[in-house]
Amino acid sequence: LSAMGEPSMDPTIAADSPAQQDSLFSMTDVFLISLITGLFTYWFFFRKKKEEVPELPRMQTVAAPVRDSSFIEKMKKTGRNIVVFYGSQTGTAEEFANRLAKDAHRYGLRGMAADPEEYDLSDLSRLSEIDKSLAVFCMATYGEGDPTDNAQDFYDWLQEADADLSGLRFAVFGLGNKTYEHFNAMGKYVDKRLEELGAQRIFELGLGDDDGNLEEDFITWREQFWPAVCEHFGVEATGEESSIRQYELVVHTDVNMNKVYTGEMGRLKSYENQKPPFDAKNPFLAQVTENRKLNEGGERHLMHLELDISNSKIRYESGDHVAVYPANDSSLVNQIGEILGTDLDTVMSLNNLDEESNKKHPFPCPTSYRTALTYYLDITNPPRTNVLYELAQYATDSGEQERLRKMASSAAEGKALYLSWVVEARRNILAILQDMPSLRPPIDHLCELLPRLQARYYSIASSSKVHPNSIHICAVTVEYETKTGRLNKGVATSWLRSKVPVQQESSSQVPGQQESSSQVPVQQGSSSLVPMYVRKSQFRLPFKPSTPVIMIGPGTGIAPFMGFIQERAWLKQQGKEVGETVLYYGCRHEREDYLYREELARFQKEGVLTQLNVAFSRDQAEKVYVQHLLKKNKENVWKLVNEGMAHIYVCGDARNMARDVQNTFYEIVSEFGSMSQPQAVDYVKKLMTKGRYSLDVWS
């Protein structure tokens, strides 16, 4: 625009000059000169317009480049014939997809792992253009039978698609948890839907159960999957079992420290220069303004934290989840560095050897080993078998090497050894290095193999109507002794427990600003900052405030209900008619771990909480749980559900509590609704379908 504007000034200057010499010319001359100048100016602009018009379409084309989202073209270009898509929320499905893609070379095939969010999945109909082609789907189920965030578009496409996938060969491995109502719903749906669209299943659906042994389920499925692939395509295993590095190490000796990642999840320096919107790749650094112990006694530490989200533009609703990115314990990181004899402050990059891959690094690079082990890598969970297999080559003791290879094998004896020595003993990578003195892998290869440290989700314990600039968390610190006598601590809860609250007045300071001059990671430099974002949930109060609610949440399962009750109190203050608000809460001892006792008593006194039923499980000889109180009040419960059209909410442990509560509702419905057991089950399932029975549970 400035280029177009500059020439338009020239005629003005030309017109001004004769005007200054007015005395030297007659009025006629001035008139003629003005007329000529005016015509010249008009002609000039008219001509420019004519010239610029054809340029506009070209400019628009440049401004909106078309993203190349064809995985088919990429596979053709790089000589791949197997694509492994993953729907992953915590990184496990992505890890399994990478392992399957890597396996392919053993059979003379070439594989690639792919995030469905990055590609146009309608191209599946073209996969048959590639010889010996196959699409594998590693699909995790999230929440109550939902797709993971990155598989949502794929799921929507599958539901609406009428594509002909008759040339497509596929296989599905699902990742789920049997304690949840909709076990492996996503894996089952993808498997069924692809067949409905005409695709050919070349191996049966695999159903991994995280409540059991997900790793073993995957290995068992995989060891039968590959022979089926070989048979279908008429190929054989090449016998190549050698370790293949996916990334190469580059050590930076002379690097600008402003170009080095210090714990950021996405954009470099994003913790020093915060820009909304905030999400998983761009978390907000919230300051902790309150961190107090909730329980009055007992061995456990239950805590209430408040995160300041002022000026972040973050919005949340009661029932949403807050995700926080924790940091590993520095003592564990230091011990790994000492055992491997590494300078943890070495700045390095791990660069993908496959230049065509969308994933250039396993974590943000360049960075230091210390930052990678602190913020990017999971060093506390027992490593999976593929990690043990890759590490085995570095054990100089033949017995230790054989033990590692055996645990990574698919033999029954090896699986049993892995289960007892690694999983049940809860040995993390540090414990394995300590218990195998000859195992000393290069730290860069270890960093390549370890999975990413994942965000932890907590049910928000506040209402945005009452606390628009604050998000509350209720959590219990995880701490236990393993079979080897080690003390294992939960990564996120131990890290949150150590957070020092700042005064509310200082929260207007730009997060991370005070650490910007330091070379230590921003969130490590401050003991009060928490990288976080909000994940939307389906766990919602009824649209009409007058609808009764029955909330069942023992222990920290009370978290979302603190938000619900706060919101109902606010609605009442606004003059709205608020229906019955019933809470069933449970804890071990009344005098030890009765969470939010004063707040709940106040809400009950104010008439917001119309019923407060509390089960103290260990205050008497016989244990009393929330389901026992539901049975005790069964007539009132049925009346609220049947006549009051109440909404039921359950939050907490999925393995026992949620199942027992559901069984109790079956009994109540059967008794008072005069239904058979199958009819009662169907009745409760319909409540779920209508959004009148909601779950927010974990295992």
From TrEMBL:
Transmembrane helix keyword on record: yes
Q: Where do transmembrane segments lie in this chain? A: 24-45
**Enzyme Commission number:** 1.6.2.4
Principal EC category: oxidoreductase
UniProt keyword terms in alphabetical order: Endoplasmic reticulum, FAD, Flavoprotein, FMN, Membrane, NADP, Oxidoreductase, Transmembrane, Transmembrane helix
Q: Name one GO cellular component term.
A: cytosol
Q: Which domain of life is it from?
A: Eukaryota
**GO terms assigned for molecular function:** flavin adenine dinucleotide binding; FMN binding; NADPH-hemoprotein reductase activity
Official protein name in the record: NADPH--hemoprotein reductase
Source organism of this protein record: Agelaius phoeniceus
Q: What is the lineage of its organism?
A: Eukaryota, Metazoa, Chordata, Craniata, Vertebrata
